[in-house]
Amino acid sequence: MSMRVLVIGSGGREHAIVHALRRSSGVNAVFAAPGNPGIAHAADCLPVSADDLPGVAEAAADLKVDVTIVGPELPLALGIGDEFARRGLRLFGPRRDAAMLESSKVFAKEFCRRHGIPTAESRCVRTQDEARSAVRELGLPVVFKADGLAAGKGVLIVRDDQDLEGALDVFFVLRRFGDAADRVLVEECLEGDEVSYMVISDGTRVVPMATSHDYKRAHENGEGPNTGGMGAHSPALVIPPGTSRLILDTVVRPTISGMEAEGREYRGVLYVGLMMTADGPKVLEFNCRLGDPETQATFLRLDDNFAKLACDAADGALHTPSLHWRKEAVACVVLAAEGYPGSPRKGDEITGIDEALALSGVTVYHAGTRRDDDGRLITSGGRVLSVCGRGASLNEALDAAYSGVAKIHYDGKWCRSDIGRDTLTKLGAENG
After folding, report:
1. Where in the chain is the domain with CATH 3.30.470.20?
2. Cis-peptide into 341, omega within 30 deg
3. 391 touches 329 (CB < 8 A)
């Protein structure tokens, strides 16, 4: 087997995918569109934007790529799956009508209701008055969610009247999320442990991936605004024994079969954000691609040929009953730029990555980085780097990750210092 693979995207998730492909036997060429300075060490980067669907498809055809793997959600929502299908090109990711599970939270909620998939009670609103009425009906606390894509930030928790006035202002007056918030879900606020559960699907069959636990809030103890993700660890360690099968039986398989029944065959990665409540797992959200930063944590544990898995799923021919994972823990800590998740500062020089990589068990994935005219590595986005640590236990993995964090420097650097702490506290209580 000799394979040529194209990865779409430019973040830490895509760097982790490229890293996994370089460990996959038979892969002799990896391309990225557009990639980043870290990805450039392991792949040929193309000057094509991820949302330039014809440009990406033409590059895949010209380079005789065997499979294209889509990282971010926007190309999927725009219909890159349909563009590739029209040209007879193999793509790992769902078509536009299936990607609506992520591109429209209202569609996803109504889909769950149609197919009996457990999720939070909610109301779809379009105005401030409708939102107030929904809050009165559901009772505080509630969650406001923009219907469309908002880079993982279109969610606000409303715990009291002051929060409510702020949320109404953000969604309906300031219109901070633009057209993505033409419709807004007002949803009951679920309590429990949040878990990321990902599977690979070929339209009929599913293969679970390793569990992970991510941290979306900007600040310690789950406070502050929502972000694209400030860290993660794998395995999740908060899923009780037997719960994985329950998730598959009550959430994942009904989703895949329901999509097929509605003529929206789903091929690619299905990511389910779940709250492990006292009444069992309930769906918080669907993503139609690998999570970020969950991928950075899980893929370092992957002991399978991801290129072949992607091809088999894209062809509707996934026959692998299970995947192989290294028996270790991985922790990922996201380094952010000053101002994130609002208006991140850009242009600060980054140093210390080589020193971090020299540490045992440390891997660094680039996200918001670029080279300036003098060749210096500088910040270019809100989430700058993902620093990952591997270890025999979560404690060891966290020690490695934070040791790597300490070696890296740029003005305005910040991160959460409590990644994994809640899991360690819970494990300690259960064992104590």
Report:
1. 191-314
2. yes
3. yes
Q: Which CATH class is domain 3-92?
A: alpha beta
Whole-Å CA distances, 95 to 70, 258, 282: 11, 15, 25
**Do the beta carbons of residue 39 and residue 12 sit within 8 Å?**
no
Architecture of the domain whose range is 191-314: 2-Layer Sandwich (3.30)
Q: What whole-number distance in Å separates Cα of residue 170 and Cα of residue 181?
A: 10
At residue 315, the pLDDT reads 97
Q: Which regions of 221-355 does DSSP assign to beta strands (E)?
A: 223-226, 231-234, 267-277, 280-287, 329-336
Q: Judge contact between 43 and 3, C-beta under 8 A.
A: no
Full-model pTM = 0.93
List pLDDT tens digits, range 56-91. 999 999 999 999 999 999 999 999 999 999 999 999
Q: What DSSP line would sit under 215-253, residue for residue?
A: --EEEGGGEEEE-S-SEEEES---SPTTHHHHHIIIIIH
> What span, in angstroms and rounded, lies between the C-alpha atoms of 58 and 85?
13
CATH entry, 121-188, from 3.30.1490.20, 3.40.50.300, 3.90.228.20, 3.90.1150.10 = 3.30.1490.20
The answer to whether 283 and 118 have CB atoms below 8 angstroms apart is yes
How far is the C-alpha of 280 from the C-alpha of 152, rounded, in Å?
24
Q: Which ranges of the chain have pLDDT less than 50?
A: none
What number of other Cβ atoms are within 10 A of residue 159's Cβ? 12
- Helices assigned H by DSSP within 10-104: 12-22, 53-62, 73-78, 80-86, 100-103
pLDDT tens digits, one per residue of 164-182: 999 999 999 999 999 999 9
Could you please state the CATH topology (level 3) that the domain comprising 329-431 is classified under.
Answer: Glycinamide Ribonucleotide Synthetase; Chain A, domain 4 (3.90.600)
Other CB atoms within a 10 A radius of the CB of residue 264 amount to 18
Q: CB burial class (10 A; 0-12, 13-18, 19+) of residue 102?
A: buried
253-261 and 105-114 helices cross at what angle (nearest 10)?
100
Question: C-alpha dihedral over 46, 51, 55, 60, to 10 degrees?
Answer: 70
Give start-end residues of each CATH 3.90.600.10 domain in the chain. Answer: 329-431
